[in-house]
Amino acid sequence: MDFTGKTAIVTGGAQGIGLAISLAFASAGAAVIMADIDEEAGKEAEGDHREKTGLTFIKTDVASEDDIRHLVDYSVSSFGRIDFLVNNAAIGWTENLSSRSTDAWNLVISVNLTGAYLMVKYCCPHMKTQAAILNGRIVNQASIVNISSTRALMSEADSEPYSASKGGILALTHSLAVSLGPEIRVNCISPGWIDVGAWKKRSARTTALLAEADHRQHPAGRVGRPEDIAHACLFLCSEDAGFITGANLVVDGGMTKKMIYQE
User: 74 an active-site residue?
Assistant: First the structure.
């Protein structure tokens, strides 16, 4: 895919799935702003991939509206446009229902859900200017991809704030698709089990000890990789997906479709 001349913002873009998405856009020719709260990871990723022109790290806390304003202002002033937004930044959960503080709940919702909403709020005025009508057909559509999770559809114990935030992302996606179309398409990806250990910053990098049984849980025959999500993200932002909006693409190797019984 050729995204030369386009600009993408990827939140949580310096590690894991976000880094894979950032590098995929850069490899396709786009200028990429990696927005991430982890300065160590951001500077490391920026330095390790200097050969990819237009790959820029901006320290950003998506729970801060001021940080989001600064990120958007920088992107527009530096590159003149925003074509793609990937809302990937997210944090996990702590403790359980009885011990978890309200502040802990609010932080997860603020980063995972409110942060995505605010990113769209401040980016969309700039994104809409890229669209045009040619011979009655909308062209140069901008695209937003929200990263949800299969935990929006199924859960494990004590994951309430994370599951609720990712379920909110699903609803936010179809609501935004209706509000922002036809100039901006809005879709969602729900990753399943993705092994991100090798895509973390060097000080946190790990090698997963995956058993054959882990791979066999997936009808596709293996645990997922960050590149799997990056490829799906590029497709949803491409003209080939021009008739897709408001959709949730589950990328989980079929794991949520397989019935598993205790042996």
Answer: no
